[in-house]
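Sorry to interrupt, but I need a hand with the structure work. I would like you to pick a protein and set down its sequence and fold. Please put the record directly below this note.
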Amino acid sequence: MSGSTVVVLVFDAMTPEQAVALHAGDSRLYRYRKGGLAQMTRDHSLAEEAGFKNRKGLPRVFRGMVTRGVGIRENLALEETAVEARESDLFILCSDGLTGMVSDKRLRKLLRMNEEASLKELARTLVAEANESGGDDNISVILVRVGPLKPVAAETIS
């Protein structure tokens, strides 16, 4: 049975420096902050559960196997991961089409080299890099740059 993966980032309107990642499968959320790259989610994959840091160490038939995903079981339990956000953070939500082709080290280098690029230009650069590296899977990239963190105004009337 095959399934799809999902990764979502939800910010708290009242406490904007707090967010939550919801995910299933091997799509990932990364946070790029001050030149450092951190993977915020863990893969729900056979490779991860078997302890392989590089899925290329697995036989090809097992490389893309996810252990949790949309459509695998009737009910889906998304993993929730608390995420701290700061002004100027860049969040990368991406499919394994990017991470399977572009190492974390190369991804960090591309982000550093393109810090002044628009989000659209940066996303195109990341997708192009994955394609140039073989592009053997669908490549999805969503970039979110955090602006000034201000709570949403709220009023209570009794």
Q: What stands out?
A: The mean pLDDT is 84.
